[in-house]
Every structure is written in structure tokens, then in C-alpha cells.
Amino acid sequence: MADEQIDATQYHVVKNGDTLWKIAESFYGDGSLYKKIFEANKDILKNPDLINVGQKLRIP
Fold first, then answer.
1. Are the beta carbons of 18 and 56 closer than 8 angstroms?
2. How far apart are CA 40 and CA 52, in angstroms?
3. How far apart are CA 39 and CA 51, in angstroms?
4. 10-13 and 56-59: which strand pairing?
5. pLDDT one digit per residue (tens) for the chain, 60 residues
6. Which pLDDT score is estimated for 1?
7. What is the reported pTM?
8. 3-state SS string over the chain?
9. Which fold has domain 10-59?
């Protein structure tokens, strides 16, 4: 128990019709926090307006 790491990272798989705004609204209750999701996924996202169905996004 002492050194167990707990991974509390949540993920969201992008579905048709999703936007970062809608995902932020769903997880945080505030769509304007979409930038947090974008920043956490800069390794796979180059533009916050371009997300693709099937992408697995980290939700900080």
C-alpha cells in the first residue's frame, strides 16, 4: 500500500458531434475550460477546433 501510485487521469474518446467545449461542459460544468483539455493533449492536438472521432483525450 505504501508506494502504490493511483492514476486518477480520466479519458474521453471523441464521439461524432463532440467539441472540446462540449467535453469541458460535460466534465467540468463549464465549456470555457476547454483550454485545460487542449493543453493536456497538445501531444495529439494541434488546433482546439480540430478533434477527430476516436481520439482518446486526457481529461485533467
1. no
2. 16
3. 13
4. antiparallel
5. 455 666 677 999 999 999 999 999 999 999 999 999 999 999 999 999 999 999 999 999
6. 47
7. 0.84
8. CCCCCCCCCEEEECCCCCCHHHHHHHHHCCHHHHHHHHHHCCCCCCCCCCCCCCCEEEEC
9. Membrane-bound Lytic Murein Transglycosylase D; Chain A (3.10.350)
Maximum C-alpha span of the chain: 43
Q: Among all chains, which residue has been given the C-alpha cell 508506494?
A: 3
What length is written for the chain? 60
Give dist(CA 21, CA 8) in Å, integer.
22
Q: Which three cell numbers stand for residue 27?
A: 466534465
Q: Domains of the chain: which residue ranges?
A: 10-59
Take residue 38 and report the three cell numbers written for it. 487542449
